[in-house]
Amino acid sequence: MSNTVVVRYRTKPDQADINHELVAAVFAELADTDPGGVRYGTMRLADNTFIHIAEIEADPNPLSTSSAFAAFQQEIGDRCE
Fold first, then answer.
1. β-bridge partners, 55
2. Which of 10, 31, 37, 39 is the most exposed place for a label (fewest CB within 10 A)?
3. Quick count: other Cβ atoms within 10 Å of Cβ 9?
4. What predicted TM-score, i.e. pTM, was given to this entire model?
5. Are 32 and 68 in contact (CB under 8 A)?
């Protein structure tokens, strides 16, 4: 059984590129570690809205043990409007 999560938020204009880099680091780590059981996609819209879609089939959730995802989550509230 899988769990699908969709998250949508808008970053402050001066934080959008930083947020994008943090998201890219998550993708790089997932590519390097290939944990399986996770499908993860992100879109960045022109107004600095980000949409994340994650389908998790693994237990535990590979994102919960990802150092890059932990770094992305740090101060996310400060990056958002």
1. 4, 39
2. 31
3. 15
4. 0.91
5. no
